[in-house]
Design a protein that fits this description.
Helix content is 17%, strand content 31%. The chain is an alpha+beta fold and 389 residues long. It has two domains: 137 residues, Nuclear Transport Factor 2, Chain: A; 164 residues, Multidrug-efflux Transporter 1 Regulator Bmrr, Chain A (Alpha-Beta Barrel), CATH 3.20.80.10. β3 and β4 form a beta hairpin. InterPro entries: DUF2358, NTF2-like_dom_sf, Reg_factor_effector_dom_sf, SOUL_heme-bd. This is SOUL heme-binding protein. It holds the Pfam family DUF2358.
Length: 389
């Protein structure tokens, strides 16, 4: 998980620790209609996992462990399901489950004691106010447990409080002599070189500190499942939009009609709070069949909303599904949007995902009141399915 230890550090040979860092080969599934999210792990033989070879050198468990495991690894996995969600709250994790000399490594930080491990957690709480989400926990070796997580943080010292997102896996090694965790090695999805000390990891932190000026308005709720170097994968909760026919992805044709609905041009003249972003959506491969949409507040129910006054304006519920999002700044001209859509679709297909036809452009800012280099824009593509490995 992401850390804040960004100062220059002395590179030295990492001492062996007990926890094995082999990648998991077991699988499990979780599905929701109509989208299926499959939870599985990468095979160790996968070329993408060659970058984890260095971490396997951290383990001496297999050479020194008893022939018959005596540790309740399944019980420890259940423990982590209960304990890790408290990583950054007032309760905190149970330090008695860890060796005093527990070895912690992520791409830019390392600690070799439980005190350093807990200090790192405390520092993150002060500087970043992290939100930690645990996706799954699995036994991946005789004395090894792997977890998958998402951590969203706001860097509080900067005036614009940039949001940093990290997703990845943690490999937890277990001391076979006392059943306690003796190593914790993190791997980030957004970088290739996860070995300590990773300049790529340091750059990944810094590039998320850029300025995006987003209005303090309600947005559709979503959970970030995975963040790669090129896009985020999000699981959206259902939301309601008011929409009408648009002209092009980057256009504003039809905006006055949907904005009029929330300003009172409806059957009860009700004024509805403004939200962000404004969506334009194309459903065809040529990105020419366009609608423009405003998201309605989450407490609204489609059955109780007033009817639009104009026949061309409609209300629609968008079911909760998974989308890939590519964030960018600047003016979202038609050429730029199409270029971003093409790049996102190409990366999704390269990663073996199944993007649907069309895309959505999300604009979070008023272009007349926001400098272009601080604008937040996103191109989103809905996915048929997503394997959260």
């Amino acid at each position: 998980m992401a850390t804040t230890h960004l100062t220059t550090q002395i590179l030295r040979q990492t001492p062996p620790v007990c926890g094995s860092c082999r990648r998991a080969t077991t699988t499990g599934t979780s599905s929701s209609s109509p989208l299926t999210i499959t939870f599985k792990t990468r095979k160790e033989s996968s070329p993408k996992n060659q970058k984890f070879k260095w971490a396997r050198k951290l383990s001496l468990v297999e050479q020194s462990s008893p022939s018959k495991p005596t540790v309740d690894v399944e019980g420890l996995a259940t423990f982590l399901y209960d304990d890790l969600p408290h990583l950054f709250d007032d309760q905190g994790i149970d330090r008695t489950a860890y060796d005093e000399q527990v070895k912690f490594r992520d791409p830019i930080t390392k600690h070799d004691t439980i005190s350093g491990y807990l200090f790192n957690i405390s520092l993150l709480k002060v500087l970043f106010r992290p939100l930690f989400q645990l996706h799954w926990v699995k036994q991946t070796g005789p004395y090894e447990i792997t977890t998958r997580w998402t951590m969203v943080m706001k860097f509080m010292p900067l005036p614009w409080k940039p949001e940093l997102v990290f997703t990845g896996t943690s490999v937890m090694g277990i001391n076979p002599n006392n059943g306690k965790f003796c190593s914790h090695v993190d791997f980030w999805d957004s970088i290739e070189n996860n070995e300590y000390f990773s300049l790529e990891g340091l750059w990944d932190v810094f590039r998320q500190l850029r300025v995006y000026k987003t209005p303090d308005l309600e947005t559709p709720r979503y959970q970030i499942l995975k963040r790669t170097a090129n896009y985020e994968v999000r699981k959206y909760e259902p939301f309601i939009v008011v929409e009408t026919i648009g002209e092009k992805l980057s256009g504003s044709n039809g905006f006055n009609a949907v904005a009029g609905y929330i300003f009172g041009k409806n059957s009860t003249t009700e004024k509805i709070p403004m939200t962000t972003p404004v969506f334009t959506q194309a459903l065809d491969p040529e990105l020419s069949d366009v609608s423009i949409q405003i998201v309605l507040p989450s407490e609204k129910d489609i059955s109780s909303l007033p009817d639009p006054s104009q026949e061309t304006v409609k209300l629609r519920k968008v079911e909760g599904e998974v989308a890939a999002a590519l964030k960018f700044s600047g003016k979202p001209t038609e050429d730029v949007v199409r270029e971003k859509e093409k790049a996102l679709r190409s990366n999704l297909m390269k990663d073996g995902l199944k993007p649907r036809m069309g895309c959505m452009l999300a604009r979070y800012n008023d272009p007349g009141r926001t400098w272009s280099f601080t604008m937040r824009n996103e191109v989103l593509i809905w996915l048929e399915e997503f394997p959260l490995d």
